[in-house]
Write a structure and sequence with these properties.
10 helices, single chain, Serine Threonine Protein Phosphatase 5, Tetratricopeptide repeat
């Protein structure tokens, strides 16, 4: 099933940098640097500030289509701040585009171990697993994504694809497609194809959207 590959561009935008902060040490510990004493918290903040600047440069490379350059740049960001969730997510996205799917899976799994609340990581993991036809694993990842954001059109569409890939075309598949079809025309087409349902892409939507 090639449709998962077709919808990959929907997942090329990482979550906001608001999720970048790592854990705060439980107490102040002092170190000496640049001929003066500062707290570990202050040192960590300096590192995160440098990482954020490097992250912006890496994003620019990705937007310019320099995917290999972006991969190296995101790796440097993570050298500065290994807990920068958005940078690790964006690294995985660039690895997907570069065809390094196995490594992307590893980065996303590592990300989700460090930050289990990073919803987009589960969605991006679902993209790769659907591409590799590992539909049961994709289903598990996408269920986690939908717990965090049940109205995500992208996650619902992938979830329906994962279920369909396992030969499951029941109410759960249909409900996921109906949610996705409210904002994604491709989901509306699948809804017609699989269930003979009228187009709902232009329906009035009261629920929040991603």
């Amino acid at each position: 099933m090639k449709l998962a590959l077709c919808i990959l561009p929907f997942f090329a935008i990482a979550a906001s940098s608001a999720q970048q902060q790592g854990p705060t040490p439980p107490k102040k510990t002092y170190v000496v640097t640049e001929a003066k004493t500062i707290t570990v918290q202050e040192l960590q903040q300096r590192s995160q500030t440098k990482a954020l600047g490097a992250f912006r440069k890496a994003k620019m490379l990705a937007q310019q289509g320099d995917h290999l350059g972006a991969i190296k740049a995101f790796e440097k960001v993570l050298d500065k701040d290994p807990l920068f969730s958005d940078a690790r997510n964006d690294l995985a996205v660039e690895l997907i585009v570069a065809g390094q799917e196995d490594r992307a899976i590893g980065e996303l799994q590592h990300l989700l171990q460090l930050d289990p609340s990073f919803v987009l990581g589960y969605t991006n993991l679902g993209v790769i697993l659907c591409q590799q036809k590992r539909y049961a694993e994709a289903e598990a990842a996408l269920r986690r994504a939908l717990v965090g954001n049940p109205y995500s059109a992208k996650a619902n569409l992938l979830f329906a694809l994962a279920l369909k890939g396992q030969g499951r075309q029941g109410a759960e598949t249909r409900n996921a497609l109906e949610t996705a079809a409210k904002s994604l025309p491709v989901a509306s087409k699948l809804l017609k194809q699989w269930f003979g349902t009228a187009d709902v892409a232009d329906a009035n939507v009261a629920s929040p959207q991603n």
